[in-house]
């Protein structure tokens, strides 16, 4: 089942919102490929993209948090570190085992669900904090 972008995922920061959309698109592209029997081929590309792009995205988010003195920065950074580790673990499994449906499930469950929940629970707090500083 594809992830749908909705207004409750908006942070109000165009760069961050666009990056979130790219992350969700990558997962949706993988799920779409799976529905067409091409998931194993797409899996490696998706894992490489997520491994690289999340680090870039999190660096952007963390820079904003530092700039606006976000009070929960240390915890937020820990969430990002945990996520990067999850993606790296999936990448290691992919290299060791090759593409398989279990890893597709991990991308969907561990990565896709984490991103959506993290945006709704944590990133919106960051966005609210930044908005309060801009007033």
TrEMBL record:
Q: Does the keyword Iron apply?
A: yes
User: Which stretches make up the Hemerythrin-like domain?
Assistant: 15-126
Organism in which the protein naturally occurs: Terrisporobacter mayombei
Where is the chain membrane-spanning? none
Q: Which PANTHER family match?
A: BACTERIOHEMERYTHRIN
Q: Name the UniProt key words of this record, in alphabetical order.
A: Iron, Metal-binding
Pfam families for the chain: Hemerythrin
What's the protein here called? Answer: Bacteriohemerythrin
Keyword Nucleotide-binding attributed: no
Lineage, uppermost ranks? Bacteria, Bacillati, Bacillota, Clostridia, Peptostreptococcales
The cross-references to Gene3D superfamilies, in alphabetical order and at most eight, read: Hemerythrin-like
Q: Which family does it belong to?
A: Belongs to the hemerythrin family.
